Amino acid sequence: MPELDQRVSSPDEDTFEQQAYLTRFLLDYTAVPLVGAVFLRGILPTPHAVRIVTGAAGATAPGELTAYEIPLSDEDDEPLTAPLLLGWTRALVSDARPRTDTFVMNIPLTTVDTSALAPNPPTDTDRVLRVLRTLAFPFVETPPDPALCGFRFTGRDRMRLYLATDRTDGLIAADVQLTGALTALLAALPALIGEEERWTTDLSDPHCARAVDLTAW
Q1: In sequence order, what are the beta bridge partners of 162?
Q2: Would you state the pLDDT for residue 5?
Q3: Which residues lie below 8 Å from residue 191, measured CB to CB, with a gap of 6+?
Q4: Closest CA to 147 of 133, 169, 137, 162
Q5: Maximum Cα interatomic distance, the chain, rounded to a whole number of Å
Q6: CA–CA dist 87, 7 (Å, integer)
Q7: What does the alpha-carbon distance between residue 109 and residue 54 come to, in Å, rounded to a whole number?
Q8: Between 150 and which of 43, 75, 202, 215 could a Cys-Cys bridge form, CB atoms 3.0 to 4.6 Å apart?
């Protein structure tokens, strides 16, 4: 199977902010199905697109997942909005499993032509979540640091977080365990990912410039 091996260049700050905005909007769909029994299982950030990873609840193995690459702007150079991304993703997963010869991190990857794709309309759940999310997490001028630009479930109790920080060009991928001293880890996370002695290069993951293993922290 051909494996996509394109290394990600360093996006600019506006790209990071857009990726963080899209990720925040879609997080609920890790627990609420996108369509039927299909859930959001990851968002892989690239300089000009987001790769939406979908699968059944609890799916983490590449063979159980499907990824769709959707550009961050349209043919008129208008930025992709989160409601439109959600509508397009729903339309894609409503179809039969796509045929593709391209893979990223061993996950089947389909590059989406959005000009030929009609988004699914929002559901009642979408509208409820949008109201509650807006009130609970109001927009702020200063984005969080580090900014969460993407993620992927990598095991039953593990995640890889894609974080933007001014400490390095490109994204840092932080592998974390979801059990254990999670509160302490989250409090220490901004400092931990900035410790250069922890940085490694993960050649198997084209979505990050550096990787940090915090699963044993």
Answers
A1: 150, 173
A2: 46
A3: none
A4: 162
A5: 48
A6: 28
A7: 11
A8: 43
| d(C-alpha 19, C-alpha 17), whole Å | 5
Q: How many CA atoms lie within 13 A of 187 on its CB side?
A: 4
Which pLDDT does position 119 carry in this prediction?
94
CA–CA dist 129, 212 (Å, integer): 32
What CA–CA distance (Å, rounded) separates 100 from 45? 20
- In tens, the pLDDT along 3-61 reads 554 444 456 788 999 999 999 999 999 999 999 999 999 999 999 999 999 999 999 99
- Give yes or no for a cis peptide into 119 (omega within 30° of 0): no
Would you state the structure tokens that stand for residue 71, as one six-digit string?
């550009």
Q: What does the radius of gyration of the chain's CA atoms come to, in whole angstroms?
A: 17
Contact 189, 214 (CB under 8 A): yes
